[in-house]
Amino acid sequence: MRIHRIVLSLSLFSASLTGCMVGPDFHSPKSPQTTRYTETNLPKKTVSTPGLGQAGKSQYFVEGKDIPAEWWTLFHSSELNALIQQGLNNSPNLAAAEAALRVAQETLNAQIGNSLYPQVNLQVNGQRTRTSTATFVGTSGSNLFNLYNVSVPVTYTLDMFGGLRRQIEGLRAQVSYQQYQLEAAYLALTSNIVTTAITAASLQSQIQATHELIRIQKDQLYIVKGQFNLGGASRANVLSQEAQLEQTRASLPPLEQNLAKSHHALAVLIGSLPSETHIPAFDLDKIRLPARLPVSLPSSLVRQRPDIRASEALLAAASAQVGVATANLYPQITLSASYGWVNSSTGNFFSPENKAWNWGGQLLQPVFNGGALRAQKREAVDAYEQSAAQYRQVVLQAFQNVADTLRALQHDAETLQAQRSAEIDSRRSMVLTQDQYRLGGVNYVSLLNANQQYQLARISRIQAEAARYNDTAALFQALGGGWQ
User: What is the pTM of this model?
Assistant: First the structure.
């Protein structure tokens, strides 16, 4: 019971002395005082492109609305949802981030245990000693001894100026940092799966378009060869058509390679080997483009982006280190006590006459250290200022990221509209040129040019469709992904 009284006395004594914490108290930086992300107001909606289904519809900007946590479900693709669920279950990156969070939490727990509570240990010693017989000259005593000792030592450092509590504050900030790093990994994983799947869908559409162009060019080659056999076309016309066909065929392997790489990337994102994973074939026409885009308030962005919150946590940790360095300038008091029994035999070992105890204290006041402690404090202040500047930079980049994405969505819709018009016009031009060529109204060079323009216009339109989907996913990511 005595040891319990010692521990209780130390705790109560410490509580009466540890009201002071030197150093700055951390407060979250204020949000930027702005009401919009872009220099000018956003339009209520983007332009639409008829005849393209989901990819051509207008998107509405809904300001002040929060991002849903599972934002990817707005694309209404069961295959995409299934892949993301696999990624969340199996991703090594997420597992590593979760382990890092647990490490930070246990480091904090260890510091709390070592700092806020007395350290109590049980020591049991036993030894047998033989000394030189010269020690006992003139006596009849034995030179063999046994010594047994059982004691409970207690030590406690009084946190009079808050240095230990500032260390705990810094470690709490590190736990927060790892939590936000986990959320950032979660957001990056889901965003990467969405954008990679959309890229795969775009490549699949481009491959289909290229196959159709190859079919058209084969038909044209058949016609040109027929004309050549009848004397209506030159050998040069046949060679030119064959060259164009082979050029189009040569564009297929890079597209197929990029599609394969997208499938491999998706396999790794969901935590599987490429050889053991079947990635579904995504079709842009079957992925719904979200029509209502939530645009949260600028004042809320700093609370929504995990990278900003992580940078804020590092700033809080730097602030705590200023307190630690300041506390190191002041006295440190350590109390210690021990209670136990000592005897040369185990018989009646715990009898009152064998009791042994002691208590004491130690005061450590830095007197001269060549200015090292003050230099460490200045170092901590400079590190805080560095973290503050880095935090401001992260915030600026986040606002730029959102502004870029919002403008990209607006311009994507306009680009798609223009590319669709170009595709329609080039298609009509190609058909008209084919008819004119059969009637001898135009030369073969004009037909080749018309075919080439249609090919480029169709591929560009498909890429413009994919850009709308990708930038929509980028907006959800830029606004923080709704993790909070």
Answer: 0.86
Exposure letters 300-321 (e unless 16+ CB within 10 A, then b): bbbebbbbbbbbbbbbbbbbbb
CA distance 268 to 86: 11
**Same domain assignment for residues 319 and 347:** no
pLDDT at 135: 57
Q: What confidence tens digit (pLDDT) does each residue in 430-451 have?
A: 899 888 888 888 877 787 788 8
pLDDT in tens, 394-411: 999 999 999 999 999 999
Report which residue type is found at 467: A
Of the residues 314, 339, 364, the one at which a domain ends: 364
Query: Does a structural domain hold residue 305?
Result: yes
Q: Specify the amino acid at residue 323.
A: G
Asked if residue 311 lies in contact with residue 40, where contact means CB atoms within 8 angstroms, the answer is: no
Give the chain's domain count.
Answer: 2
Q: Are residues 35 and 52 in the same domain?
A: yes
Classify residue 187: in a domain, yes or no. Answer: yes
Residue ending a domain, choose from 308, 339, 364: 364
- Tell me: do 390 and 455 sit in the same domain: yes
Q: Are residues 126 and 266 in the same domain?
A: no
What size, in residues, is the chain? 484
36 shares a domain with 52 = yes
Q: Tokens in use for 84?
A: 């993301």
Domain containing 339 — which CATH number?
2.20.200.10
Same domain for 458 and 315: yes
Most confident region among 205-219, 242-256, 444-458 by mean pLDDT: 242-256
As a whole number of Å, the CA-based R_g of the chain is 38
Q: How far apart are CA 193 and CA 73, in angstroms?
A: 13
Q: Is residue 205 part of a domain?
A: no
Residues spanned by the domain of 15: 1-19+119-135+143-158+331-364
